[in-house]
């Protein structure tokens, strides 16, 4: 009886369990979702026709409309606006594109994780020449074979993405299925094979070496980072709590010490070190010592305030007028966009250099068939002859017709207009000054 009483008294004592509530890696899964979205967008943009490059025509293609270099306001507005937005992004968020959206970094991380699972956690690829430290229990032919097949499959898939930027989806499908198509270059399969080889070497060997030492894009980003750009902040007042802990350092796949970040380091603001510290400190029911911060880096060797010329807000404000101006240029370029191009010139021939013929060249900038009608105004009836006045244009096609001027025109200068109209309502004209002898 007394034993049961003791058990009841012991069970009534309140017990506080520390660290049982798991802390999720809030940045990790969000970053994975953004990385997957970035790869999907890189495929969807050209495959949907939103933006690609027509090599044969030498033009950008935006929503199945060719954009020529003569479309100056549209082209200049787009690129200046994009660069202005990127500069403002670099100034505020730093290298988040590298950590959250760059396909190169995504593939390198995936390759690291897969290598660790199949060959052991210490099997890290290092360009310094050190051999892989493969786990003895995982050093099997099957694991090596699975790793090679996975890398080859990924290389073959990602090497296809650039094709979407130069060929329409139906042509890429013909390429994948080895179907005959006159639009495909005979050497394209060799070019694709070289791309696969480059991708395989990048995934299997190069990986983050490219990010750390060879990426020109990172140099461009660093040119716009300031002391106030987004960075990892370390709570130095609690340094005694992590004096014997290097968990954040071992978690960083860039091999940085997140407690000592600087303006021009290799940190990509991925947030993995913050997640690691939060999960470790959660066992003590304490917040982590690392966090993201936008503001002045308070270090002993850095002044508290910088000049306004290099501050975050002044730089973003300096780029705002360029962004607004370029957006206006782009809108004006869209408003004044001409889907067809007309050019008229003398068509002198070797057989009859004195012939009074003109060549009317018409180009369609649309990737759909259409019909055009040509007429001439300003010349008397019977004073000219067109080889044809109705044209059926192929998608992104080019056609030319001949305008012959009658020999019996009165002596002097004659002004006339070549007018071209499309069934979609577009109308264009070309003014000509013709001298009749």
The description of the largest β-sheet is:
4 strands, antiparallel
Strand percentage lies at: 15-25%
Structural class designation: alpha+beta
Mean pLDDT: 81
Low-confidence stretches: 1-20, 299-310
> Order of strands across the biggest sheet?
6-7-11-9
DSSP helical segment count:
14
Give the beta-strand count: 13
User: What's the shape?
Assistant: elongated
Q: What integer value in Å does the Rg equal?
A: 33 Å
SSE order: HHEEEHHHHHHHHHEHHEHEEEEEEEE
- Gap between N and C termini, in Å? 134 Å
**Multimeric organization:** single chain
Helix proportion of residues, in percent? Answer: 40-55%
What does this 3D model show about the protein?
- There is one protein chain.
- With 437 residues, this protein is α+β, with helices and mostly antiparallel strands.
- Among the domains are: 26-49 and 95-222, no CATH class; 340-436, Immunoglobulins (Immunoglobulin-like), CATH 2.60.40.10.
- The protein has helices at residues 2-11, 26-47, 72-93, 96-100, 103-119, 141-158, 161-164, 169-176, 188-206, 208-214, 216-222, 247-251, 272-281, 312-335, and strands at residues 51-54, 59-62, 65-67, 231-234, 290-293, 340-346, 357-364, 370-377, 384-386, 390-393, 398-405, 412-422, 427-436.
- The strands form four sheets. Strands 6-7-11-9 form a four-stranded antiparallel sheet, with no helix packed on it.
- It is elongated.
């Amino acid at each position: 009886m007394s034993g049961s009483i003791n058990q009841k008294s012991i069970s009534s004592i309140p017990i506080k369990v520390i660290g049982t509530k798991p802390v999720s890696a809030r940045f990790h899964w969000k970053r994975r979702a953004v990385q997957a979205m970035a790869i999907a967008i890189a495929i969807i943009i050209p495959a949907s026709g939103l933006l690609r490059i027509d090599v044969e025509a030498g033009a950008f293609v935006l929503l199945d409309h060719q954009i020529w270099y003569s479309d100056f306001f549209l082209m200049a507005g787009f690129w200046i606006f994009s660069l202005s937005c990127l500069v403002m992004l670099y100034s505020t968020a730093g290298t988040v594109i590298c950590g959250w959206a760059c396909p190169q970094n995504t593939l390198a991380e995936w390759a690291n994780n897969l290598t660790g699972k199949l060959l052991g956690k210490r099997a890290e690829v290092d360009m310094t020449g050190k051999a892989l430290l493969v786990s003895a229990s995982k050093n099997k032919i099957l694991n090596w074979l699975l790793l090679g097949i996975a890398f080859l499959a990924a290389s073959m898939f990602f090497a296809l993405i650039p094709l979407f930027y130069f060929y329409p989806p139906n042509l890429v499908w013909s390429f994948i299925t080895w179907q005959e198509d006159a639009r495909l270059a005979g050497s394209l399969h060799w070019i694709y094979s070289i791309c696969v080889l480059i991708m395989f070497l990048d995934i299997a060997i190069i990986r983050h070496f490219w990010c750390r030492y060879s990426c020109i894009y990172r140099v461009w980003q660093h040119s716009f980072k300031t002391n106030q750009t987004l960075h990892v902040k370390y709570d130095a007042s609690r340094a005694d709590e992590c004096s014997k802990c290097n968990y954040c350092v071992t978690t960083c796949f860039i091999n940085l010490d997140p407690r000592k970040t600087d303006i021009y380091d290799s940190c990509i603001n991925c947030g993995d070190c913050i997640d690691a510290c939060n999960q470790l400190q959660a066992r003590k029911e304490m917040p982590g010592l690392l966090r993201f911060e936008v503001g002045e880096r308070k270090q002993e060797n850095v002044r508290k305030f910088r000049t306004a010329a290099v501050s975050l807000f002044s730089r973003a404000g300096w780029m705002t007028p360029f962004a607004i101006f370029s957006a206006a240029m782009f809108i004006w370029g869209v408003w004044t966009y001409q889907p067809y191009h007309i050019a008229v010139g003398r068509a002198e021939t070797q057989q009859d250099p004195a012939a009074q013929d003109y060549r009317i060249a018409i180009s369609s900038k649309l990737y759909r068939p259409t019909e055009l009608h040509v007429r001439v105004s300003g010349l008397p009836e019977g004073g000219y002859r067109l080889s044809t006045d109705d044209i059926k244009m192929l998608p992104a096609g080019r056609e030319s017709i001949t305008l012959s001027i009658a020999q019996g025109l009165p002596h002097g200068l004659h002004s006339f207009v070549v007018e071209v109209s499309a069934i979609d309502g577009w109308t264009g004209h070309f003014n000509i000054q013709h001298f009749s002898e």
